[in-house]
Amino acid sequence: MPVAAVAGGLFATNIVARLIVRFTASKSAAHQTWIGLIAILAVAVVMIGVAFWWAKRYPMPRVGADLGVAVLVACALSVLVGPYAGGSGPFKEGLGFFFGEVWHYLAISAGGAVFGLLLVMAFGQDYRSQSWKRYAETVRAKPRRVVRR
Questions:
Q1: For residue 40, how far is the Cα from the chain centroid?
Q2: Structural domain of 26
């Protein structure tokens, strides 16, 4: 369920940006560029936040798999269904543009996820660091064993 929510949020970000471009900036290339940059930054910020949040609670393999699935689903929806919200089609600009859009989306979202994971690791808040901290506390909390000879 959380994976679907993240994918839906990323897809909604893309749809909102396309609708804003369609209804307000369809004639101005400069405005379209600015709206696109803001949408890209929004996707990156969402991925940073989700990666930071999940890495604190779950082991890294699960976080990587969950984020990967969410990004792939959101990317597929954004490049196949998203253009219809903007009044276009997925392959209207050509196959090269389509694949470029896919690679850019994957790169931005993966970059955001990696940055979020690096932040949580740098602060020592990731799942593994917290488990090592708990282990160290339990080892220190045990009373010292007296050995008789």
A1: 11
A2: 2-141
Asked whether residue 16 is domain-assigned, the answer is yes
Matching residue, tokens 């396309």: 18
> What's the pTM?
0.80
The domain tally of the chain equals 1
Tokens of 117: 């994971």
Instruction: Determine, yes or no, domain membership for 19.
Output: yes
> Is residue 149, in this structure, part of any structural domain at all?
no
Tokens encoding 53: 């949040």
Q: Give the pLDDT of the chain (149 residues) as one tens digit per residue.
A: 889 999 999 999 989 988 888 888 778 788 888 888 899 999 999 999 999 999 888 888 899 999 999 999 999 998 998 888 877 888 888 888 889 889 998 999 999 999 999 999 888 888 888 888 888 888 787 777 777 77
